[in-house]
Write a structure and sequence with these properties.
mainly alpha; about 0% strand; about 65% helix
């Protein structure tokens, strides 16, 4: 009788583990598709007319070199010069690479090579196109796109890499914890990233009375009227309140950083992360400025929300579900 009970427990535990693994893989597939959609939007933006004009290397790429050390500055100058000489060919290649990444992520058979290409391409763009997101040139604001969209593509691609097995800790079972970094490193990465955001938010240049007002108000150029009205409303709301808002925002970012360490706070903290990320995307990043015709990506807001979903605890599903994205 005892042996039968032990056998039943083993069978139940194995079934539960299998259910958890299947649920995690389904959720990983959904998130991989969302990453593919983000790359698809970026590819479409890269095919815009503006990107095939000399304004793109001159006004978008080259300015990111300013203030950076030589190992960042010189490659950016080189890439901007090379693009100016072979603009149509190279920009067509850039857009097509992003389109291939998107297609690879949206089709389950090519996800692994697409994730590798996503990480490699993201690193190259972050270095030679975004100047490391400006993190070496002085205070950078989360509102202004810290740490750079391309770096977030790299981080998300790493977290989404499929790995056999699932974490032992059921309370923290998520795609990130089941990824190649493992639970401890994945949680450490989350905490380090959001604590960094909080520290940057409290730097003197970012907490002045007018800092946030100026950032939001400065985004209005080239935007349609309805987006400019959002900028105007938000800028008026932030006028003279930079210090208070910075402290409140930093406190929220710290709570977000720590939320993943307790099962009871994980979901509320991740919801807060998504709300903050999307609010910044709408109010301070103007939907990535995609309405201006000069945007190269969605900016960091949606990607930070996607990153939060990578840490969302996955419930085991005992019933069959059809994969969302083939």
């Amino acid at each position: 009788m005892t042996g039968a009970r032990l056998s039943q427990n083993r069978t139940t535990g194995s079934t539960s583990s299998d259910d958890d693994g299947r649920a995690s893989e389904r959720w990983r597939g959904v998130l991989t598709c969302l990453l593919g959609v983000a790359w698809l939007v970026d590819a479409a933006l890269q095919y815009q007319h503006y990107m095939f004009t000399q304004a793109f290397p001159r006004e978008t790429i080259r300015p990111t070199a300013a203030g950076n050390p030589g190992w960042v500055h010189d490659p950016i100058e080189w890439s901007a010069t090379l693009m100016s000489h072979h603009l149509i060919l190279l920009n067509g290649v850039f857009a097509t690479v992003q389109l291939l990444i998107a297609g690879g992520l949206l089709w389950h058979r090519t996800r692994k090579p697409a994730l590798v290409l996503s990480a490699i391409w993201g690193l190259l763009v972050w270095w030679m196109g975004e100047g490391l997101g400006g993190i070496l040139t002085g205070p950078v604001s989360l509102l202004g796109g810290l740490p750079g969209a391309a770096l977030l593509y790299v981080v998300i691609a790493v977290l989404l890499w499929p790995r056999r097995g699932v974490p032992r800790d059921r309370s923290q079972r998520s795609v990130a914890a089941a990824g190649p970094l493992g639970r401890v490193a994945a949680l450490g990465l989350w905490m380090a990233l959001w604590i960094w955001f909080a520290i940057e938010t409290l730097l003197p240049a970012n907490r002045t009375a007018s800092a946030m007002h100026d950032t939001v108000a400065g985004m209005a150029d080239g935007e349609p009227h309805w987006i400019r009205s959002i900028n105007t409303w938000a800028a008026e709301l932030l006028a003279g309140r930079g210090l208070v808002v910075s402290v409140v925002l930093a406190a929220c970012l710290v709570l977000i950083a720590l939320c993943v360490f307790l099962p009871s706070t994980t979901r509320p903290g991740l919801i807060l992360a998504i709300v903050v990320s999307l609010a910044i995307w709408v109010i301070a990043q103007d939907f990535g400025q995609i309405a201006t015709g000069t945007a190269t990506d969605l900016n960091t807001g949606p990607l930070l929300a996607l990153l939060a979903l990578c840490y969302w605890p996955v419930k085991p599903q005992t019933h069959s579900m059809s994969p969302t994205c083939r």
